[in-house]
# Entry
Amino acid sequence: MPDYPIRFGFQIDVVPENCPSQIIFGLAARDPANSGSAKTYGFAVRIDLENREIWDVLNGAGLVGWVEHPLGLAGYTDEEPLLLGWEIELHGHNLIPKLQIADQQWLYPTIHCPDATTMEAVVGWEGEWENGTRGFVMHPALWREHLPVPQSKEPKASADEPVAAA
# Structure
């Protein structure tokens, strides 16, 4: 992770009728300080397509929400797939996540990340599925951008300039 503010993310599209019933989707890292028994941290959810539930799998947050569409899961097709996305902002040592499923967004609690780390994009499934990720993941994308550094709104007086007192 760099020492300046960035925003990065990972997203995929899926068509629920062409997917396993439960998808795991996230960005995760391992704590390098504990290489023997490395602790995984980051952000990941399990999407239960049968019940349309979204469950947290890394941070103990439980049920996050539901996949909603007026037509149910049949509303997502090859032409209009279901978007799954993570957007993370890094400010200092804090990772600030936002989950997007279709047109809904959920904010997650911030994670403190004291050391430089590399996050990995994760897509998988629970249960039986013989086709692999090529059978259901469409349009995978990773991205990263610099965020503007906030500037002070008050101009600083130089040592030569007189400063007016109120």
User: Anything to note?
Assistant: The mean pLDDT is 83. The chain has one domain: 6-146. The radius of gyration is 20 Å. The chain is about 0% helix and 45% strand.
